[in-house]
Amino acid sequence: MAGRQPSHLPRATTTATAARSLPAVIAFSSLLLIVLFLYFTSSSPPQLHSPDPDYSFVTSLDKFLKLSHNDRLSIPFQSSVTQLDDAISTSESQRLYPSFPLRVYVYQMPPKFTYDLLHLFITTYRDTSNLTSNGSPVHRLIEQHSVDYWLWADLISKPESDRKLKDVVVRVFKQEDADLFYIPFFTTISFFLLEKQQCKALYREALEWVTSQPAWKRSEGRDHILPVHHPWSFKTVRKFMKNAIWLLPDMDSTGNWYKPGQVYLEKDLILPYVANVDFCDSKCLSEFESKRTTLLFFRGRLKRNAGGKIRSKLVTELSGAEGVIVEEGTAGEAGKSAAQNGMRKSLFCLSPAGDTPSSARLFDAIVSGCIPVIVSDELELPFEGILDYRKIALFVSSSDALQPGWLINFLQSISRSQIRQLQTNLAKYSRHFLYSHPAQPLGPEDLAWRMIAGKLGNIKLHIRRSQRVVKESRHICSCECRRPNTTTPVSLS
Fold it and tell me: Which ranges does the record mark as transmembrane (predicted)?
């Protein structure tokens, strides 16, 4: 027994030491778990290089223009179109489509197409007397259609490591590395803020500049992205760029704004308007939940052209109905405040067609937590390949809406549980319609690139097909959706 005693002594010593250190280990482990819990459950974990997003176009643009933009030089392709095609084909052979992140080459156009126009806006936007022929404030219209700014500002943001969409889309600096080419020309600002002849001349210069690029010649523009979000913008020359991917507010089936064969869903992308009213967040929604006493609300221009003629008919039908507020819209901050307050105090918000099938009022309603009632038979919606609008809006045909008493009876028949579900979904969906800088995951910029990714395989198909089809062939795919009342067969691409 005495000979075994030394072997027991170390064990006893170790056990005693462990016993003394056990409380310290438990305390340390508990502290570590608390720290980890606080970090991962915090609604805003500490981030060194992640500024709060700006949702205001004017605020964001003002900050953007004050930054230094000594942008890294994108390398133009100096050789022939054939050599560029070979280089792109070599790069493409290494991956399948769609693949993320998308690789976008941003053209570095002369400042007169980009920064000069942005500076022109920021120095004149306080001029509230600048109105269109129908009385709409010019600068508010520009803000509504400012998708060209939000996408471009995100793409060129530095450093790349700070961008939140870098897993979805990245900027490349060599044309041969690109999946797509972005044209940063501010078509809406130039249309509204330049003299008519000056604007037309600038459009022609932009057309000449872009179409002279080797990448454009290689694909005839099929892999180029052109923001033309206001239906009046770029109108005089866009027929020469109809192969490009257009960023649009809608398809406009009336033919007043886009000619047949210029726009179609297979090629182009519908993007939401920037809302005119402030976002009603969760705190705001809770505050106004008990105040939504108006059944149906509409405030805006009561008489519109083309497809928007239904507005005046709806006004006549709804006039004097109980629980319904229909008002003529007014410009300025007072008009915005009245619209915002009315939407936040209403269960349903009427969204009829404007001059085109779409209207900014739809997106005003969504960010206000007011259930949209869409009366626009030809409307195409943003991101419908991703979002199901039946979960947040009601769709009513024009013929039904104009029947005496039909619309009010329909809205009154909707149960409280249905209303609550629609409102819950609106609160979840609103993030998809808030442009911001920096761009946020699942925001409209993110969904735009995801939708374009879905088109990329088809874009590549038609580029290659156009390169090899005999020009005299009668079977060249025109990629045009014909009007239903014609006898010409429909041809899609």
Answer: 21-40
pLDDT tens figures, 153-188: 999 998 888 899 999 999 999 999 999 999 999 999
Other C-beta atoms within 10 Å of 462: how many?
A: 19
pLDDT tens column, 10-61: 444 444 444 445 445 444 444 444 443 334 334 333 344 456 899 999 999 9
Nearest to 262 by CA among 276, 274, 244: 244
Reference 48, options 162, 154, 158, 170; nearest CA is: 162
Domain boundary assignment for the chain = 57-270, 282-431
Distance between CA 269 and CA 380 in Å, rounded? 10
DSSP code per residue over 465-479: HHHHS-TT-TT----
**CB-count exposure of residue 225 (10 Å: 0-12, 13-18, 19+):** buried
Length of the chain counted residue by residue:
493
Hey, what are 241's tokens? 């760029």
N-term to C-term CA, the chain = 93
Helix (H) or strand (E) holding 257: none
Cα–Cα distance measured from residue 225 to residue 172, given in angstroms and rounded to the nearest whole number: 15
